[in-house]
Amino acid sequence: MPSFALLLGVILVLATLIDAFEVVLLPRPVRRRVRLNRYFFKCTWDVWAWCANLWPTGRRREDFIGVYGPLSMVMLFALWGASLIVGFGLMQWALQRLVPAAGADALIDQIIISGDAFFTLGYGDIVPHHSLARLLVIVEAGTGFGFIALTIGYLPVLYQHFTRRDLQLIEFSARAGSPPTAAALLGWHVHDSPEALERWLRDWELWGSDLIESHAVYPMLAYYRSQHEGHSWLGSLAVVLDVCTLLIAGADHARRHQATATFSALRRILDEASESLRVAPVRQVSARRMGAEALGHLSPTIRRILPAWHDDEATLQVIQQLRKTYEPRLEGLSAYLLLPLPDWIDPAGAAAERFGRDAVVRHLTEGRPG
């Protein structure tokens, strides 16, 4: 029994330290499937999502889901700390049984001593009687200092990535509406030159490159909801992918270059997020978001930006082929994270004409975000 307790304690301590190192310090994604934090997020998010599905759709449900991201990090830090305290406590208790004249305290007493050493409280009620036990206390005290310092320094880095992601969504909502649509976004760019649209897509390529890094190294960012109602990193990504799809399918070669680069960067975000969260793509893509009717609404708007754009049957086939490369993962993440996907056009009707003068006035006076 003492040997088993010693082995279990060593495994707990090493597994926790490795997990904390990979999450906090390692600046690259970890592909190993067996990870403590992966099981933690899987179990806690499944429970949280199940509870969220009991609520009707609305602001209260979104507020409840939005609590999970920050709270999960607090719970993860608490889990790491508890695992280290219990692991060192098991090792102390096992040493008392394996080493002569090392004492005979109960397991619960050794766990309390471990907590005392971890947080360096210095009560001194129970003093280790053996040099190995004293050395273990010193190691645990140093581990506690380092653990607390790392967790304090980790949160600002995490929130810096979250802030950069959210700032781009605010600018996006002003152009694409809330909830956003590809038609509204294209309508906003009607009076811009094609070069202006390409520069805007270039900004989103850079945003996508930043998200590839942050969501691969910090996959828990996917659970963080935007602080603004109606905004969603996944929904915004879907709309930009939709716009890139339209440009790649129907524009001439010279106008496809930037759209292709942006499309590739954003699609890779889906690959990284799905891999990090272990979310499988859906097997059958919904036909809700795009079809010939939606393309008919969008065509006049796109031609005002790119007169050479065409919407023949070949264009629709290319659109369907491109959708198959990102829609399965997009819908899989949407279902898993409880983030609804926007439509290509306004569900109310002719979204391509939404940004006429009177529509803009209504849009600005309704008081809707974005």
TrEMBL record:
Transmembrane parts of this sequence: 67-90, 135-159
Limits of the Potassium channel domain: 118-155
Domain of life: Bacteria
Pfam families per record: Ion_trans_2
InterPro entries listed in its UniProt record: K_chnl_dom
Gene3D superfamilies: 1.10.287.70
Keywords noted in UniProt: Ion channel, Ion transport, Membrane, Transmembrane, Transmembrane helix, Transport
Membrane among keywords: yes
GO biological process, one term: monoatomic ion transmembrane transport
Protein's UniProt name: Potassium channel family protein
